[in-house]
Amino acid sequence: MARIIIDTENTKGTISKHIYGHFSEHLGRCIYEGLYVGESDTIPHKNGMRKDVVNALKEMGIPNLRWPGGCFADEYHWKDGVGDKSKRKRMVNTHWGGMVEDNSFGTHEFLELCDQLECEPYINGNVGSGEVAEMQEWVEYMTFGGESPMALWREQNGRKEPWGLKYFGVGNENWGCGGNMRAEHYADLYRRYATYVRSYGGNKIYRIASGPGTDYGHDRLNQCWTRTMMEQARHMFDGISLHYYTFPGSWHQKGPALGFNETEYYTTLKKSYWLDEVIKHHAAVVRRFDGEGRIKIIFDEWGTWYDVEPGTNPGFLYQQNTMRDAMVAAISLHIFHNHCDIIHMANIAQLVNVLQAVILTDKEKMLLTPTYHVFRMFKTHQDAELLASISVDGKAGPDEWTVPQITHSASRAADGTVTLTAANLSVDKAAEIEVILAGGSYTLKKGEILCGAMDAHNTFDAPRAVAPVPFDGCKDGKLTLPPCSVVSLILG
């Protein structure tokens, strides 16, 4: 029998709610159709935002949303996306599918969406193809409340009061699609651009620098970028971003989202565990230069990346979402919890219709993916205190791709309730678990379980084929998790 031992008197830090953040890029059908349908569409909307999607995301507990990219951020010129929509400049989205971008979803629309979602906006500025003045004026347009050309223009475009904006990224993947820069060159550019990302009035900007590409096999090389940024620019940023995608195959070979075999299943889970090593490597560099712990890691792109669904535009990155993805989400969120002393934010890629999406849409139809259900089931971890815990369990998978059978995390909320989340990663073996709570006595207040075959997924014809159901199978501190399952227990 496996054991999960939780020390309720020993806390390890606060799990920032922003670890449960999300990412929306002008890519495929993420923005257009997925989030925004325009003011004249027959799909129910509020100021152009899909009501069904907004309501589902609020129920899930979305704390922040990153926009406009991604690679798109470093070819996005914000002035093209404000003012009269009939006069906005059109462009070709060269990064993603070569589609025409009409800029009908811009700054006002994004911040309206965040208002409806009641979440923090996180905006990435354009360093790759943009100018310093362009970034300076964007921040002024959004956040300056006095008299200035940008504040006046904002008022003319329908918004007198400034918005509150905390998170601003100075570029994205500037080692690659954001300009193919060397670390030293980006460090100098960052210092220049960030100088003009000013905090106006009571709005304090949390500045985020672009970090390196990360790949477990070459991650020690990627640490050179992190070291350069910490050496040369750390006094000018609050966080540094990291990205890590889980590819089932070797050397970024993706494989199918459906129809995969057990080896591909375990390979994917094993590679999702490498996220822990990536964080350790870069956290060590950050701490070497920042003994006070001020600078945090912003893991603003993560998730699975498979081949696109057959018959879809390869530039749209549309893929199905199965219980395998639910396992990756559980593993990854638990890893972020364990590094909550240095991980302030994480953003799964992407919100709707792209990569490891929590929602898929097909015109007026919408479905919630297994990944969505994990995020909703785990939301009581947000801003809770991480409790010290260990698990003693067996292994699952073939020798080369063996993973622990159980992944888990425990936290205590401000009201004293304890959340325990766990997943049985085995595709064919149930897990008998004894839960030991040291330092307290608790009873089960609410339980939910999500389970299914490793490739179980929802479709528009069967949108609830995979969905959580109540779980009361915790008796005398013992529970049984079926194969390929995720459970959330609220104890009080």
General description of the model:
This protein is of the alpha/beta class and 492 residues long. It is 25% helix and 27% strand. Helix 6 packs parallel to helix 7 (262-289), helix 7 runs parallel beside helix 8 (323-338) and helix 8 (323-338) runs parallel beside helix 9. It is globular and about 65 Å long. The mean pLDDT is 95.
List descriptors.
Immunoglobulin-like, globular, alpha/beta, 27% strand, 492 residues, TIM Barrel, 8-stranded parallel β-barrel, 2 domains, 9 helices, 10-stranded mixed beta sheet
Topology overview:
Elements: E1 2-14, E2 21-23, E3 45-46, E4 49-50, H1 51-60, E5 64-67, E6 91-93, E7 99-101, H2 107-117, E8 120-125, H3 132-143, H4 149-156, E9 167-170, H5 183-195, E10 206-209, H6 219-233, E11 239-246, H7 262-289, E12 296-304, H8 323-338, E13 343-348, E14 359-362, E15 365-368, H9 370-377, E16 385-392, E17 395-396, E18 403-404, E19 406-412, E20 418-424, E21 431-438, E22 444-451, E23 469-470, E24 474-475, E25 478-481, E26 485-491
Parallel strand pairs: 1-21, 2-5, 2-13, 5-8, 8-9, 9-10, 10-11, 11-12, 12-13
Antiparallel strand pairs: 1-16, 3-4, 6-7, 14-15, 16-19, 17-18, 19-20, 20-26, 21-25, 22-23, 22-26, 24-25
Compose a concise summary of this entry.
25% of the residues lie in helices and 27% in strands. It is α/β, with parallel strands linked by helices and 492 residues long.
